[in-house]
Amino acid sequence: MKIIAIIPARYASTRFPGKPLAMANGKPLIQYVFEAVSMSSLVKRVIVATDDERIFKAVREFGGEAEMTLQNHSTGTDRISEVAKRLKTDIIVNVQGDEPLIEPDVINETVKPLLNNSEILMATLKTRIITNEELKDPNVVKVVTDRDDFALYFSRFPIPYVRDTASQLHPAHYKHIGIYVYKKDFLLKFAQMRPTLLEEAEKLEQLRALENGYKIKVVETDYNSIGVDTPEDLERVKEILKNKT
User: Fold this and answer.
1) pTM of the full predicted structure?
2) Mean pLDDT of 200-227
3) pLDDT, tens digit, for every residue of 132-186?
4) What is the C-alpha separation between 36 and 39, in angstroms, rounded?
5) By the 8 A CB rule, do 20 and 29 touch?
6) pLDDT tens, 109-129?
7) 39 has pLDDT over 90
8) 215, exposed or middle or buried, with CB in 10 Å at 0-12, 13-18, 19+?
9) Distance between CA atoms of 54 and 239, rounded to whole angstroms?
10) Which of 51, 62, 107, 175 gets the highest tally of CB atoms within 10 A of its CB?
11) What does the H/E/C string look like for the chain?
């Protein structure tokens, strides 16, 4: 099956404008993401989808592939869907442009369920929460799954609520990592669905799939994402990247 990764990247950001082009040890963040995804043994092509000429130019300058999209997309899924329509492929991988520490093996882990089971239309990742700070942080999305690791619900609230312990942290608490893998046909269908009540309440787009009755496979990983949402996050990531080289 042909697998293409699309990285949505926009310049406008409430908390950190110009984030994809923020420099970390001599390279823009989007370059770190592009290079890491390109190292996946299962992904055969990587495209940055952007509505900004500055990002488009920067990607082309470091030798990457980029495509311009419309400016009126409200979500990254809408942006990658526009590009996916023009591609001949079976599977689309959506990796956020603010994940410079993403690992190629993690991408492979998320893709494999769709290769092994033709009935799976969408997959994502989870990792165990190990601090109460993460558990209580509404910016850290939590996920609960059934016994077969299909998502039951995603929330910004600490789920499950552990009634009988003084500390709420529990082995059942998992953090959602926002890497998505879709069958291309399902991605295009998903992007056409109307936003749903739970999705709009939590501001979590993946709830749209669950509310419409579709299953999401959730792969457990030891990888713990550090996305760049603020300039402070960038400083943390810079130190980690510096130690990697």
Assistant:
1) 0.94
2) 94
3) 999 999 989 999 999 999 999 999 999 999 988 766 789 999 999 989 999 999 9
4) 5
5) yes
6) 999 999 999 999 999 999 999
7) yes
8) middle
9) 26
10) 107
11) CCEEEEEEECCCCCCCCCHHHCEECCEEHHHHHHHHHHCCCCCCEEEEEECCHHHHHHHHHCCCCEEECCCCCCCHHHHHHHHHCCCCCCEEEECCCCCCCCCHHHHHHHHHHHHHCCCCCEEEEEEECCCHHHHHCCCCCEEEECCCCEEEEEECCCCCCCCCCCCCCCCCCEEEEEEEEEEHHHHHHHHHCCCCHHHHHHCCCCHHHHHCCCCCEEEECCCCCCCCCCHHHHHHHHHHHHHHC
CA distance 28 to 197: 37
Find the length of the chain: 245
- pLDDT over 70 at 232, yes or no: yes
Q: Are 77 and 124 in contact (CB under 8 A)?
A: no
- Tokens for 139, please give them: 């910016």
Structure tokens at 1: 């099956």
Strand 45-50 with 66-68, pairing: parallel
